[in-house]
## 1
Amino acid sequence: MIDIKSMSYDEIVKFVTQELKLPKFRANQISDWLSKGVTSFDQMKNLPKEVIEKLTSICYISVANIEKKLKSSYDETVKYLFSFEDKECVEAVVMKYKHGYSMCISTQVGCKMGCTFCATGMGGFTRQLNPSEMLAQIEAAQRDLNIRISNIVLMGMGEPLDNYANVVRFIRLVSSEKGLNIGTRHITLSTCGLVPKIYDLADEGFQITLSLSLHAPTDEIRSKTMPVNKKYPVEEAVRACKYYADKTGRRITYEYAMISGVNDTPFCAHALGNLIKGTLCHVNLIPVNPVKGTGYNPSGDKRIVNFRDILSKYNVNSTVRRTLGADINASCGQLRGKNKD
Ligand code: SAH
Ligand code: SF4
């Protein structure tokens, strides 16, 4: 079966005119319906019955079904557990900000990277998501909440750069005028640091924000929590980010989950300051979300403030991030883990 939602407009035109031998205006109609988020071909009201039947017999439209939905009682954060055709599940979160709605979506079912603080990492890898399944998460939330998503964060389950071709295709589709038309300036991609792919992404010509999950300033500490560091050490990852910033003019975000007694010492703050001072960047300090079985606890407020103060001596800007939806396990992989239990 053909995954029609993963096709670009030009590919749909080619498919409709060359394979189905239909006039081009049919391709425009099909493309319009797909971008409106229809979930089946019989919702394409202006197509003749035989065209709908033909499409149904050779193509499918990816849909994200809502398995679970949790609303935070503190803020307007909504967390979803979505299932796909094969019953595999991923998580996504919708957050309300001053400027609109931002959605954090998944790019893989599970993850191969095995970070020791991460619920997704603990569960292992199942499969890649197709571009259409990334789009389907956004469309399902827009339908359910009757809103428009204006910002996308690739920070749900999975390592986006480990699903490079599908993620890049998704970015092209979602930012296209014929699609949801969410500009690449409104997209953030978070990676654990697959260095060669960071260089590739820098050369794609997108304006997306790159976020590096750094979480430790030295190889010794980082390799303990992030196995990927043994392959791509801290300095190489930071060098790749500098290349990204130079090439795109976009400020790098460094994610730093504060884990009590692991990466939150003054030594770590000085090492981090030295590592990234003078570069176009911003640091997000996030008290780690304690995940069952990891044994990690979040750093206390005093530690975090002290860490931020040391960074400011290096003129490195940082924000202590408010944790949205803390009561609904809004951090990646936790809801799916619970559902499996
Ligand atoms: N694989 C990508 C994107 C998905 S993870 C990456 O690692 O960047 C999204 C973010 O959540 C990453 O910054 C990751 O390090 C962070 N994260 C994972 N588990 C966490 C936890 N228990 N507490 C705080 N942040 C966590
Ligand atoms: Fe994968 Fe990111 Fe979790 Fe690491 S933090 S295991 S890379 S999802």
Note: Residues 111, 113-115, 118, 120-121, 158-159, 192, 213, 332 surround iron/sulfur cluster (ligand 2) (CB under 6 Å).
## 2
Amino acid sequence: MKKLAAGNWKMNGLAESLAEIDALAAAHPAPGCEVLICPPSTLLSKLSERASGTAIDTGGQDCHVAASGAHTGDVSAEMLSDAGATYVIVGHSERRADHGETDATVRAKAEAAWRAGLTAIVCVGETLEQREAGQTLAIVGAQLRGSVPDGATASNTVIAYEPVWAIGTGKVPTLDEIGEVHDDMRTQLTARFGDDASGMRLLYGGSVKPSNANEIFGVSNVDGALVGGASLKAADFGGIVSALG
Ligand code: PGA
């Protein structure tokens, strides 16, 4: 199983940001690690062209469930693939919160991703209130059951555990807390998908930086990271990639 360092640029990046790809490609010294950048869809096609011939893959941040049609402002998985993507993030907590996406929506989006030949990165994670109420494993378990479609395999699906309260806040769970959730996710996925789940990559996301990447990647069942803020600068993201490689 190759580890995965996935960068989510969110709603950041203009044409001038494409130069970060050159710097990242030049710095990327980690053959044991796959590197992915998910830019805003306005940059996807240009970034995919710029990254071709490098070890960097590109992905979308969301997709519609339909392949095409009257859905103003939306982008389909087929369009992402056409623009060079090989992955798409589905069910990020910002999509769940800002656009009311339910587990059923996220599952349908993951299926749309597969239909277009993309690997789906399915995001799950508890809020601070849920963690403080001792509900973390129950919430994450329910999201996994509801958001990951039947037929998930190590090659068509990646799971990202992102505690909502750790995203963009500089707060990170303890290593024991990360390990507890990742071990539980592996157990659940193995119970449901059997051997296919053993190679499924489980990413941690939420305030990952070069300074904490090493210790987080040492936690059992952490197979990479989904990185927001620290993916915007090649120098920072390169440090995270090196920690994985
Ligand atoms: P962050 O975001 O690294 O800026 O905390 C992570 C994410 O939302 O994927």
Note: The first helix runs from residue 19 to 27.
